[in-house]
Amino acid sequence: MIESKDSLFNNFSSGTKKFISANDVQDIGALIQKGLEYKANPFKHRSLGAGKRIGCLFLNPSMRTRLSTQIAAQNLGMEAIIFNVGQEGWALEFEEGSVMNGTSVEHIKDAAPVLGKYFNILAVRTFPSLKNREEDYSELYMNQFVKYAGIPVVSLESATLHPLQSLADLITITETYLNPISGARPKIVLSWAPHVKPLPQCVANSFSQWINAWGEADFIITHPPGYELNEEFTKGATININQDDALGDADFVYVKNWSSYTNYGEILCDDENWMLTTDKLKVTNNAKIMHCLPVRRNIELSDEILDSKNSIVTQQAGNRVWAAQAVLHTLLTERGELDR
Ligand code: CP
Predict the structure, then answer these.
(1) Ligand 1: does its nearest atom lie under 6 Å from the Cβ of 302?
(2) Nearest CA owner, ligand 1 atom 3
(3) In testing the pocket of ligand 1, which one of 127, 257, 320 has its CB within 8 Å of the most ligand atoms?
(4) CA of 157 relative to ligand 1 center, distance in Å
(5) Beta bridge partners of 311
(6) In 3-state terms, what secondary structure has residue 160?
(7) What is the mean pLDDT of residues 193-212?
(8) Percent of the chain whose pLDDT exceeds 70
(9) How many of the other CB atoms lie within 10 Å of CB of 99?
């Protein structure tokens, strides 16, 4: 097992224990290796989390994130309790100082500390509204959980980021890309794809943030004009609005739709030519195709690609377990050791 010299996560000494962004991670390479070690030996620490409990709160739907986090916790001996807040819980208020005369029943200032008494780790999924960019990008909901829960908080996808997905993506790239002779860095292309609904930018933001922070790949983003992502996350990537050019010699193509950041939440392009096809892959280095799932077949990605040997989307989703297990292990063991 990888033993970090200092800490894999930041902010432990200040008491803020969280995994909500690549910025919370000091050593991405070591975290990837920890995930791969769990993949080889899932039950290595099957008693570590005995007597400890993780609460997984879903304000929005999920399949992969919910199940992989639950399995990861159980592999470490932790109990995982799932709570679908969006369907089963009281409607929460997140604004400070609000007069609660509307539909919200309970303030996060009251609810989060209670959750902090029930659990040792809190994990939260909360999507953006896609109506108010400033509000979504302030990450008010996730930050309020961090502020008031009093226990470590893990993002299961927030308004702008999806860190457990991105860690699984890097685990997948690391185990798939083998180039021992030349030692060349992989060329990774994030390619926008059409969709029938406006989707958040969080998977694309997060993938960009993690690839850039990792620093082990040549990274290109291709999208139609108007789909530029927030530079906070893409800084360091090459942006090319010509998809055919961008795909040249790619080792990995990560396909994902997102709605416009500049014309916030809008669909600006429905050109089906942006959907990846086998023909388009001819200019790549027999690229592996990635997608976080769920995927709209023959809208975002064609059957011929998804059903081909180039697709590694199932492997990628499988690796969500090892990403979650690496993160939970780190929270359970590092110098900000859980005290309950
Ligand atoms: N990729 C992902 O987060 O899948 P779910 O929405 O099913 O959790």
Answers:
(1) no
(2) 65
(3) 320
(4) 8
(5) 289
(6) coil
(7) 98
(8) 93
(9) 7
